[in-house]
Amino acid sequence: MHNVAMLKYPPGTDELGALRRRAWQSWLVFAAVTLIFLVAGLLFAGAYGRSQALADLAEQSRLDASLKASLLRAVVERQRALPLVLSDDTAIREALVSPNPRSLEPINRKLESLATSAEAAVVYLIDRDGVAVAASNWREATSFVGNDYAFRDYFRQAMRDGKGEHFAMGTVSRRPGLYISHRVDGPEGPLGVIVAKLEFDGVEADWRVTDKPTYVTDRRGIVLITSLPSWRFMATKEIPDDRVADIRESLQFGDAPLLPLPFHRIEAWPDGSSTLEALLPGDGSEAFLRIETLVPSTTWRLEQLSPLKAALAAGAREMRLIMLAALVPLLALAALLLRRRQLVAMRSAAERLARNELEVKVEERTRDLSMARDRLETEIADHRHTAEKLQAVQQDLVQANRLAILGQVAAGVAHEINQPVATIRAYADNARVFLDRGQSATASENMTSIAELTERVGAITDELRRFARKGHFAAEPTAMRDVVEGALLLLRSRFAGRMDAIRIELPPDGLKALGNRIRLEQVLINLLQNALEAIGDRDGAAIRVRCEETAGGILLTVADNGPGIPAAIRDELFTPFNTSKEEGLGLGLAISKEIVSDYGGTIEVDSGLSGTTFTVHLKKADML
Predict the structure, then answer these.
(1) Which residues in 41-157 belong to E strands, given as ranges?
(2) pLDDT tens, 198-208?
(3) What's the sign of the alpha-carbon dihedral 370, 376, 382, 387?
(4) What DSSP assignment string belongs to 301-343?
(5) Distance between CA atoms of 584 and 566, rounded to whole angstroms?
(6) Which of 216, 79, 197, 88 is CA-nearest to residue 147?
(7) How would you classify the pairing of strands 263-268 and 502-505?
(8) Could you say which of 147, 243, 578, 589 has the lowest number of CB atoms within 10 Å?
């Protein structure tokens, strides 16, 4: 968007002033329309959000009420089985036929145990006259034993119909509960009634955990079970006075006043639910949604009150936020379009007045850009010159590194061909002596050996030349016996008087390592030469060479009983130019290690006062 700061130019005419006045009037109209849209949208969104929240709350409340009703049914069903089973108990029948302390004491103990295991409040046995003869609370001061319950509905129903259920206030315990009874029959007719009382303290405690008051009513609308104890034995509707008198006379609910529940402004809904205001103990009046559902297998109804205020407020708030999220971008887009239209009109007027000054600024800017271009070209030329110098320096460094490598290779060539050249000299001297003696055949053999050694020197120089070109001899199966014999051949002339110190266990003919014969000979020659130089001319000097096959490959061992390697040299033994010899170059072991590594092997050294042992691990040719 173009910067509106260009409006600072003096217009010189009334055109810009008229445009500003019309823009101000347009914004006033836009603000009024925006306010109307926002108010109407928030009102509609609030109403719609509350209706949706009410529907969602009703659906969730129905699920909660159905779940609570099912759990309540499960609690009742679990207790119904107890009187049914006890009514067929032989010991209970015999105790009713012949009641006496000896027969009733086991019954008391049995009922006490069953009440504990079945989580019943109390289980008691009534004879045909309505007097309790045994009870699970027989040890307590409020024992039911000896009390007359002939007036209770559950006793009369059981004696008449075989079973009965009755919710009432206990005449002794003064605690409400459901009395489940079953008749005990004998051969000659009814003997009595077995009764289990079920109290709902645990169920009510679970209901109190939620913020939804829940209660159960009978067919008359009287509250039997509730999460609010103050609502117990109140009614959902007005009970006539004559009915109240009958209920009190039956002692079903003691002296409870049976007043209506503190509900106000009840409004029914088509789906069977209703909204109301309830006066809660200590919290004042609050609006609720009431959901009703039947408790299966009973005549009870479960009613649940779900708070409305928070749910409706959350629903309205959420819908208003959604409405704002939809309206605000639209209104912002409209404002943006209006603003852009005004800017286009004012920018056109301002541009016409500022064209001359703009042309001047363009010329000045063009001149500045030209100067900047010249400076940039100069900098580019400087950078190009610097890059050329850097490239030249890099090439010099590469050349210096190449010369250093070639120097190491040259030193290695001089070191590695020293033994064959010395041997050639020895064979030549011997051949001249044999010729002087007239032993031409022996001299010819020496000449043949000289030719072979010359070929070997050529092979060594070819190998080092390849090494200088960063090349390698191809790995191939190499007989270890040929390697050992070739190394001894090169060393025999130089160390002619000391070769007896070498004890060699020649490897079998079929033992082949992965490598190259000439390069492996170089390794063995370096190791034997170091060993021979280490033992010197001392008495008892010995060098042992052994080549054997192992599970991991081939093991070549060169061990001497010399003085050992100094500790200062041992740590960097395989580093180039590291040597303790005055005329040594320190390349032999470094090159040997490189050769062995090329073929996947390793060299290990163990040195002490009793001598030095070099162990070369090579791959066996048939392991691939």
Answers:
(1) 122-127, 132-135
(2) 988 888 888 98
(3) negative
(4) EEEEEEE-HHHHHHHHHHHHHHHHHHHHHHHHHHHHHHHHHHH
(5) 16
(6) 197
(7) unpaired
(8) 243
> Bridge-partner residues for 618, per DSSP?
554
- Residue 339: partners with Cβ closer than 8 Å, 6 or more residues away: none
Helices (DSSP H) in 87-200: which residue ranges? 90-97, 101-118, 153-161
Give the list of residues 6+ apart from residue 401 with CB closer than 8 angstroms, or none: none
What six digits make up the tokens of 357? 């000054």
What's 3's DSSP letter?
A: -
Asked if 336 and 316 touch (Cβ cutoff 8 Å), the reply is: no
Tokens of 245: 């008198």
pLDDT averaged over consecutive 10-residue blocks of the chain (624 residues)?
A: 41 65 82 85 80 80 88 88 87 86 86 85 90 88 86 89 88 86 88 91 88 88 88 85 78 81 74 67 74 88 86 80 83 84 77 73 84 88 81 45 42 61 83 85 84 75 51 76 80 66 84 85 85 81 88 89 82 74 68 84 88 90 66
User: Which amino acid is present at 6?
Assistant: M
* Structure tokens given for 323: 């409405």
Token readout for 110 is: 């049995």
pLDDT digits (tens, 9 = 90+) for 216-248: 998 888 898 998 888 888 888 888 877 888 777
Tokens of 461: 């120089």
